[in-house]
Amino acid sequence: MRYYIIAGEASGDLHASNLMRELKRLDAEADFRFWGGDLMARQGGKLVRHYRDTAYMGVWEVITHLPSIFKNLNECKEDILRYHPDVLILVDYPGFNLRIANFAHSNGLKVFYYISPKIWAWNKGRVKRIQKWVDKMFTILPFETDFYAEYGVPVAYSGNPLLDAIDTREFKNESREAFLERHQLPDKPIVAVLAGSRLQEIDRIIPDMLKMVRKFPDHQFIVAGAPSFTEADYQQYVPGEGSVKVIFGETYALLQQAKAAMVTSGTATLEAALLKCPQVVCYKMWGGAFTDFMAKKVIIQVPYISLVNLIMNREVVTELFQNDMTEENLTSELRNLLCDEGIRNKMFADYEELQRVMGGPGSSGKTARLMWDSLNG
């Protein structure tokens, strides 16, 4: 079969690549064409456009890049028609993918959506579009499944693919000593810095995160480099030459060795929790007090911004969002994570409960089987 897949960010690249691997096990003649990243490219097929060239965050960035966005949309539509896939698989990335879903549905193509856009958090009206344009939704969180079922959307749940990625991670059993030696690091407690995968995120968030370097001189701060950036992209924000190391391609290895982490809201919050790394969640958008007011009162329709807290339906990890993301607050929260054993142990216990709720690995294979069975009647 011919599969056209669209993923627009690093997490989508990861989960789509695992899905592709499992689809190949079921379909010996699987042919892939996709918008995504390096991990998807390793599974074979044709990479049409890398997500680093298509990701925009925030209202202002979208407005200033409208010509590029519309150009990408038109090129994608034309490419889909030329390829004429047996199925179009959309991975999150709703601003782009819902428009493509409408187009594909109008042209008689079968549309699967893997990893739901977070419409349950904002703009719930989009569910009507999904109901009309998407043949089947494949969710990765239990509460999402219930949400779509309420609206009559064909939906299937098979667990969360993060559990697959974490279970099969490289350096899974590596000791702390081996990690330090391999990266030529000093024997000091590690604070992991996960600042997101978009340029706008690191530009707005990492300067505040790296202010902590001077606050905690007995710790070493290590940035988990996103695949779409270079070390130079990060070093421009580092306070003092050589004071912060950047490690690429080993986010899981870093988290399992870190004593604590500062994490930009998103999939990384769930990854840190499943790897048992105490964390504080950080997020700041353009717009200051106005954006803070609009987000809390109008846009965001859920009580939390991190997946950990949303799944548990209570505050497991502290969220520093917009105006709360201050140097004083971040210093206080990070000190708690590093020095207060009571807070650390409470978080570890909550992480264990989260693991039970999430279940075990095998999600990617189950999702591929559900898709394969649906495509074959």
UniProtKB/TrEMBL annotation:
Q: Name one Pfam family in it.
A: LpxB
Q: Which GO terms describe its biological process?
A: lipid A biosynthetic process
Which molecular function terms from Gene Ontology are attached? lipid-A-disaccharide synthase activity; phospholipid binding
Q: Which keywords label this protein?
A: Glycosyltransferase, Lipid A biosynthesis, Lipid biosynthesis, Lipid metabolism, Transferase
Q: What superkingdom heads the lineage?
A: Bacteria
Spell out the InterPro entries in the cross-references.
Answer: Glyco_trans_19
EC number per UniProt:
2.4.1.182
SUPFAM superfamilies from the xrefs? UDP-Glycosyltransferase/glycogen phosphorylase
> Its catalytic activity?
a lipid X + a UDP-2-N,3-O-bis[(3R)-3-hydroxyacyl]-alpha-D-glucosamine = a lipid A disaccharide + UDP + H(+)
Q: Which GO terms describe its cellular component?
A: membrane
Enzyme class, top EC level, equals transferase
Q: What does this protein do?
A: Condensation of UDP-2,3-diacylglucosamine and 2,3-diacylglucosamine-1-phosphate to form lipid A disaccharide, a precursor of lipid A, a phosphorylated glycolipid that anchors the lipopolysaccharide to the outer membrane of the cell.
What's the protein called, per UniProt? Lipid-A-disaccharide synthase
The organism encoding this protein is: Marinilabilia salmonicolor
